[in-house]
Amino acid sequence: MLPRPIYRLAQVSRQIIPQARLIQPPHFTRFNSTSYTRGFATMAPIPKTMKAARVNKQGGVEELEVVEIPVPTPKPEEIVIKTEWAGVNFIDTYFRGGVYPRQTPFTLGQEAAGTIVALPSSADVLDSNDYKIRGFSEGLKVAALASGGFAEYVAVPWTHVQTLPEGADTRQGAVSLLQGLTALTFVKEAYPIKKGDWILIHAAAGGVGLLLVQLASQFGATVIGTTSSQAKAEIAKKAGATHIINYTESSVPDEVLKLTNGRGVEAIFDGVGASTWEDNFTSIRRKGTIVSFGNASGVVPPFSVLKLGPKNIKVCRPVVNNYITEAAEFHEYASELFDLIKNGKLACAVHSEYPFTTEGMRQTHVDITGRGTSGKLVVKIA
């Protein structure tokens, strides 16, 4: 258990598009007694077709459309979820734009939250103890890592489905799951943060950045965050950042070295990529670790391993899925994540909610790449 609670983040009160309705940050401590997570619903028949956000060919936002397609046929080990909410992640723009090549057409999305409408058909799965202890049943509210999450129905391996705590709704699940797992696994495994560490977090007011700031500060680190505006600086400070550097006004490595008396930081968490890469080698201290996990400003350029020698630097490129490949790994981290949120130790800020339309989906990509957002973008599917 982490040592102390933090201030709940304030929501950025900005209207994104006319159809979007800004929503409050998630609350786990109050809930409607008529909508318990473990309540059971009467399941309607699964239709033959559904709406899904499809990428026709990799390219600009104009290639993203919400269209009607067949409901997926689940594999024997898969659970079918009727999606209510789906989270927007920067990696969605990589798949749409072609940074990560993929055969087209495909349904976009990495995570979904909703209600179970069908369980696995595999007898081996249903009889396994790992499956039984999850307590899955039709009508249960869950969140899942779901490829193709921007769809009215998703078929997901049971190993990557998590029951939501009582009092949590599916919006909360979609807001917190993927970014929360990313931040939690990175601070525990990519670079295990220790009390007394100095940590630099780029884009500290972004979705993952805010979670990294909260976790790092609660582990006892001194956090330096980078932002592009005073408004974002205030949000990062409320999350627990000790120092903020506005990278549009100051040299980040110069300021880092001033703050650390010339030593640099023990670790850098960098989801920005190309524009911050070279400066990281100045900001990091001897025997430090650079955790590179995003390409928001472009792909990190190739570099010689000889670059690591002068300070004995370690560089890692973690992918959250590879920390939670096994069912037990996913369950352990997802359970810890939702416990932290439920107990007020971690707050997932919501930037805005978007409608599940072609216009709404395209706008999510315009906004998340425009560097004007702070916190999570989420799409209301149903």
Description:
With 382 residues, the chain is of the alpha/beta class. The chain is 28% helix and 24% strand. The chain has helices at 90-97, 123-127, 129-132, 170-190, 207-218, 230-239, 252-259, 274-283, 327-342, 358-369, and strands at residues 49-55, 64-70, 78-88, 106-107, 111-118, 141-145, 153-157, 161-163, 198-201, 222-227, 243-246, 265-270, 284-292, 314-316, 350-355, 376-380. Strands 3, 5, 6, 7, 8, 15 and 16 form a 7-stranded mixed β-sheet that branches. Strands 11-10-9-12-13-14 form a 6-stranded parallel β-sheet, with helices on both faces. Strand 12 (265-270), helix 8 (274-283) and strand 13 (284-292) form a beta-alpha-beta unit. Helix 4 (170-190) packs across helix 5 and helix 4 (170-190) crosses helix 9 (327-342). The longest helix is centred in the middle third of the chain and has 21 residues, at 170-190.
Question: What's the arrangement of secondary structure elements?
Answer:
Layout: E1 49-55, E2 64-70, E3 78-88, H1 90-97, E4 106-107, E5 111-118, H2 123-127, H3 129-132, E6 141-145, E7 153-157, E8 161-163, H4 170-190, E9 198-201, H5 207-218, E10 222-227, H6 230-239, E11 243-246, H7 252-259, E12 265-270, H8 274-283, E13 284-292, E14 314-316, H9 327-342, E15 350-355, H10 358-369, E16 376-380
Parallel strand pairs: 9-10, 9-12, 10-11, 12-13, 13-14, 15-16
Antiparallel strand pairs: 1-2, 1-4, 3-5, 3-7, 3-16, 5-6, 6-8
